[in-house]
Amino acid sequence: MTSIVHALSDDQVNQELKKMIAFIKQEAMEKAREVHIKADEEFAIEKAKLVRHEQTSIDANYEKKTKAVSMQQQITKSNIINRTRLQVLAARQETLDGIFEDARQRLPDAIQTSGLKPEELYTNLILQALASYAEVVTVKARTKDHDVVNKAISSAAKKYQSQTHLPVKLSLDEKNTLPAECAGGVTISGLNGKIEIVNILDERLRLLESEALPFIRVTLFGKSETRKFFH
After folding, report:
1. Which parts of the chain sit beneath pLDDT 70?
2. Helix (H, G, I), strand (E, B) or coil at 195
3. Which residue among 2, 103, 152, 164 sits deepest, i.e. has the most Cβ atoms within 10 Å of its Cβ?
4. Domain end call among 69, 98, 115
């Protein structure tokens, strides 16, 4: 059997070509749409990654800056507290220094108004120092006090011998005197100057200052939470 092949007309050929072109165009559009969708998905993924990375970086940066600001605030606060504390301590010390300086300035007048006779005062100062010495003792005083100290030496020697039944020889050193600007008092030396006791009123006031300082602080400023006194 022989088959008969009919040739396609021009119209039929054109129709077939149009179908093929439409099919290819449809396939291309589908492919383009798939590529576009995939590109959009990849873009969204990359964008999300980038956003997360940037957000993490921003958060870390913000946390770092927040910590730095907090640290700086703590340092500033600590500096202010320390500076204020030092200012308070300086003001307190200035007050205490003023109190004792005022006491030093008033010391000569206080002695005169105390009702204690100068000779009695110097006698007591000499007697307090005599307990540490041998038989021969030298006394030093201010030049202006020599007259009253000579009388006090005689009185102190008699009282010392009466109380201890020991001999003692007291003499006033008129060449080596105490500074005129001191508030008064005496120094006692024995054993050829090897031992000396300073019993001047300025020194007595300094000792009193050292002993009384803790109690004066508490009286003026109240008890301190950080300072402990054992006096």
Report:
1. 1-8, 110-116, 131-135, 224-231
2. strand
3. 152
4. 115
